[in-house]
Amino acid sequence: MSDGTTATETEVRDSASFNIHSDPIPSFGSLQAARADIFQRERKLHGFSDVVSGMSDSGEEGRRKGLGLWMVGRYDEAAKILADYQGDDVAAFTCANALTSLRRFKDAAPVFKQLSDKYGDEPRPRAGWLEALLEEDLAAGKEGEEAIGRCAKGWAEAPESFQKSAEGKYLSGRMAECRRDWDAALESYAAARDIDPSHRTNLFHLAHLAERHGHDELALECYEVLLSMLPLDKRVLMNLGVLYEDLGRDQEAAACYDTVVRADARDPRARLFLEDARAGMDMYYDEDMERKEDRLNQILRIPITDFELSVRARNCLNKMNILSLGDLVRKTEQELLSYKNFGETSLNEIKEILGSKGLRLGMAREEAVASIESTRQRYTTGENVEAMNLPLSDLELSIRARRTVESLGCLTLGDIVQHSEDELLGMPNFGVTSLQELKEKLTERGLALKSKES
Q: What single DSSP character describes residue 72?
C-alpha cells in the first residue's frame, strides 16, 4: 500500500538522514554512528558521497568535507584535507584513523600521541598511538620482542585504567600474538570483548586467531557479529566464507564471496572462491574424477596477476575479464587478437606463460589434464619416492589446508614437503589446526615437512 511518497521524496529522505553540512559532530563516536547509517543502503551512500564531493575544501565546510570523506572510505582525500585542521580534536582523530587505514602508521602515530597527551584518561588515542608504533615496527620486518618493544613500553607506562580497558586488553593480545603466545592472546582478546563487544578490530583478531587454532564456534560467533556492523569488511567476508565452507555451509560461503565480488568484480581471489563454493552446492562427488582433474584445477585457479606481463597485455586481459589461467585457456588466438590493442607481442607473452604450465590457448580439458600430468615434476630419488609422487588429492585435506598448499604451487606430496612449518603458518587462513592436520596426513605416508635447518 502506497503512503503517497514519491520516489524523489524517498531519495531525499534517504540521503538526508545525516546532514554533513549542519548536523552536530561532537565526537568521533558520533561520526562512526552516522557512518553506519549511511552504509545501510547503496543509494543513500552514493547520495551522501555526491554531497560530500560538492563541498568546499576550506573553512568549516572543508573540515566537514574531510570528515565526510572518511565516512565514505575515501581515506587519502580525507587525510589531505583534515591535515589542515589539526587544532580540532575530532578532525585530528579522524585524520589519524584515515592514515591508519592507508597504513601510513608513521604519520598517524604523532597525531594520536598528541591527542593521547591531551586526553590522558581517554583510551582510544593512546591505543591508536601504541598500535601505530607496533604496526610500523612490524611493517619494518621486526619480529617478537623487537617488534613490540615500543608498544610494550608505552603500554607499561600507561595508567592502570588504560591497561584494564578494552583497548588495553586488545593491545595486550596483539603483543602476545607477536610473541606467539597464542593462549595469552586469545585470553586478552576475549577479555577485551567482554568489556566492549563492539570493538571491531579486537573482534576480527579474536575471530582470526580462534579460527586458526580450531575454535570454530568462537570464530563463527565473532565473524557473524562483525557481519552485522556497517560498513562491511572484505576480510571478514572472505574469512567467514572459508569457515562456512569448512563447516559444509557452501551456500552461505557463496553469499559471502558474492558480496565481495559485487563490490569489486575484479577481485580474482573472491571470484575463484565463489566458483568453488557454488560448485560445492548439491554437487555429486566423483572421487575418481576429482583425482584426475585435481592438478588441472590447481593450475587453472592461478590468477593472471601472479605472472610478469607487459602493461598493455595486462590491461587488455583485465578489460576482457580474464582473471585466471582458467579464463585464459578458454580463449583462442583469434579471439585475443581481435581485441583492440592486443597484438602479436602480447599474444607471445600469453603463449609463453601457458607453455610454462603445459597449457595452450583453446585447449580441450581432456588434453590439458594429460599435458599437465606429463609435465609435472617427478621425484626419482630419496626416501619414499612412491609417496612423494602421490597427488595432493590423496591427502583429502580440509578446504582451508588444501587451498594453502595449492597457493604455494604444490601438486604432489613431494612438493608439499619442500616447505617448512613457518612458511605454511605465514600463509593467510592457515593456522596451527591446519598445520597439525597436514602433518598427520603426511606422517601416515612416511613424510614430513622441511625442517628449519634444511
A: T
